[in-house]
Amino acid sequence: xxxxxxxxxxxxxxxxxxxxxxxxxxxxxxxxxxxxxxxxxxxxxxxxxxxxxxxxxxxxxxxxxxxxxxxxxxxxxxxxxxxxxxxxxxxxxxxxxxxxxxxxxxxxxxxxxxxxxxxxxxxxxxxxxxxxxxxxxxxxxxxxxxxxxxxxxxxxxxxxxxxxxxxxxxxxxxxxxxxxxxxxxxxxxxxxxxxxxxxxxxxxxxxxxxxxxxxxxxxxxxxxxxxxxxxxxxxxxxxxxxxxxxxxxxxxxxxxxxxxxxxxxxxxxxxxxxxxxxxxxxxxxxxxxxxxxxxxxxxxxxxxxxxxxxxxxxxxxxxxxxxxxxxxxxxxxxxxxxxxxxxxxxxxxxxxxxxxxxxxxxxxxxxxx
Length: 369
Ligand code: IPM
Ligand code: MG
What we know:
Elements: E1 6-12, H1 16-28, E2 34-37, H2 42-48, H3 54-62, E3 65-70, H4 86-96, E4 101-106, H5 120-123, E5 128-133, E6 143-146, E7 149-152, H6 158-176, E8 184-189, H7 195-207, E9 215-220, H8 221-230, E10 237-240, H9 242-254, E11 263-267, E12 274-278, H10 295-308, H11 312-327, E13 330-331, E14 352-353, H12 356-368
Parallel strand pairs: 1-2, 1-3, 3-12, 5-10, 8-9, 8-10, 13-14
Antiparallel strand pairs: 4-5, 4-11, 6-7, 11-12
This protein binds 3-isopropylmalic acid (IPM) and magnesium ion.
């Protein structure tokens, strides 16, 4: 890797440009980075008629890492199968860059436990990781329409399942190091109905003995959705196929009180560049107002530093700074309005409602402290 990491920056649509600009300010406080800004998503459709050009895909593959804001918006919403859609850019990048493993860590910030829709006794101690398969399944199978009939095909090969299973077991092992609880992988499927799920379960079970230090259990996806809200603290690593992972990771994200807090890392083969983006969308309704929550993008930059650039210490600095500003009571509107802390914690600060810039300034001040 070059001494100055080369980062392709894809601000995208809606609030994307605001939160990405805030994030490069945070990165600049940690060191030198060379940014190459490109269009992807709706903005690329407007400029080039396609959500992802070959040039941009090539630039992303040649970078050390890719930082993405968000894509999409009502302007490009369509049910016409022939019209370009912003999401095609994202899916094209995932496939084109070979990003088969999507990591979505869910760790409610201590200051935000009061903002969770769950009771505090349920949410306390929650610290889980969703490992989502990202380049297979129904997202990429044959699809089409014939008159009044439409189809989408879910297909998985044993090799695709095996590599994501290994990602999950290795992640569990890493998370377990230095902790006293035995690492656990919960594999999610619908093996009582789907053939792809039976293959999934078979392969995950076959790989498991290579990770004897990690416990494995299997949950049907409907049951997993239920358990996630009834006993979230008992999960460690959840591994799921593409569509199930998409759904469960939004559910898991909301455990933190806001989808605006959840970062993600999409990784391919070792040594290849990864893609780092917040899980939330482009929020076109609040775009341009200066109120977007930049924290999930800061935390995505932290994942980029840790998983993409080998700079774990810098990643921890961002994460600590985010926790610190939340502990001081700073809240963007999506986080505001809930009790900051339990009534039993009289020392907790009042909430202060802030916009993107003040939140960013506060994180920068923490980093400088
Ligand atoms: C996500 C998003 C995308 C997905 C959409 C925008 C295509 O929901 O990253 O979770 O479904 O993968
Ligand atoms: Mg999603």
